[in-house]
Design brief:
The chain is an alpha/beta fold. It has helices at about 15-30, 45-55, 70-80, 100-110, 145, 160-165, 180-190, 220-235, 240-265, and strands at about 5-10, 35-40, 60-65, 85-90, 95, 115-120, 130-135, 140, 155-160, 190-200. It is globular and about 55 Å long.
Length: about 270
């Protein structure tokens, strides 16, 4: 049961050790059969040097370097190299909880029809409107429901290999909300579940949006989200009514977030 974990890395010299260590600890509670693929996305700090040092002491860690092209391209590079039966992800400023892999793998074993599973990041519970309950804290996610709230993000999700062999990839043109596009396309063709339980967290305890990292640029996040909602309507069969509601809802969320971020700045 080989497991591949893909980590895009950009200027993460202060967090990359902890990020990788958390993944190793979580995996080795269950298996020694894994690989960790770290894709350095043109870092300008010491991230690449640190990655090479870490990899020199652990043959299970693969380091790849590319010119800066964004997280989507970095994850796609990792997907092309991944050999695992299961593929999981982390971000270089996030860490897995100790039981992360054990929890997600148990869902795959208990529900063999499941192709993709995700859980919570930073928060213990979230609202589950429009989701079909399967079991205690476990829900089925539809493509329509996904348009209003992305339940899937890389640090807390895992997919089966057949999704990658099917050809689903991140859209390399997106520099924000690229995971929304990726998981929309998975939801269109595969069975996806959501576990309402925390399995990962930010190392720097950053805000969910508008502070730093991949979620720091609200404008790019919104552009990516609106692009993905439109793509779901044009290419994945989401009807016009759902598309219209989801588009308006996304814009309203964007302006709400802008207000919150501005108030946060004034406070400090």
């Amino acid at each position: 049961m080989l497991v591949s974990v893909i980590i895009p890395v950009y200027n993460s010299e202060n967090t990359i050790h902890r990020c990788i260590e958390s993944v190793i600890i979580s995996l080795e509670r269950v298996t020694k059969d894994y690989e960790i693929i770290c894709v350095d996305d043109g870092s300008t700090d010491n991230s690449l040097r640190l990655l090479n040092e870490i990899a020199s002491n652990n043959p299970k860690i693969v380091v790849v370097h590319q010119e800066n092209a964004g997280a989507a391209t970095a994850r796609n590079k990792g997907l092309e190299l991944a050999k695992g039966e299961y593929i999981a992800f982390n971000d270089s400023d996030d860490e897995w909880l100790e039981n992360h892999f054990e929890i997600l793998l148990e869902v795959f074993k208990k529900y063999p029809y499941c192709d993709c599973i995700s859980a919570n990041h930073d928060i213990e519970r979230q609202t589950t409107f429009f989701l079909k309950k399967i079991d205690n804290n476990l829900y089925k996610v539809s493509l329509n429901a996904q348009q209003f709230k992305n339940r899937y993000s890389p640090p807390n999700s895992m997919v089966s290999r057949k999704i990658i062999e099917f050809g689903v990839r991140y859209n390399s043109l997106l520099r924000g909300s690229e995971e929304f596009y990726f998981y929309n396309h998975i939801l269109h063709d595969f069975e996806c579940l959501f576990l309402n339980k925390k399995v990962s967290q930010s190392i720097l305890h950053k805000q969910r949006y508008g502070q730093c990292g991949l979620s720091g640029n609200l404008k790019e996040m919104e552009k990516g989200e609106l692009f993905s909602i439109t793509d779901s309507h044009k290419n994945l069969g989401v009807n016009s009514f759902i598309f219209f509601l989801a588009y308006i809802f996304s814009v309203l969320k964007y302006y709400k977030r802008k207000i919150i971020v501005n108030l946060r700045k004034k406070k400090f």
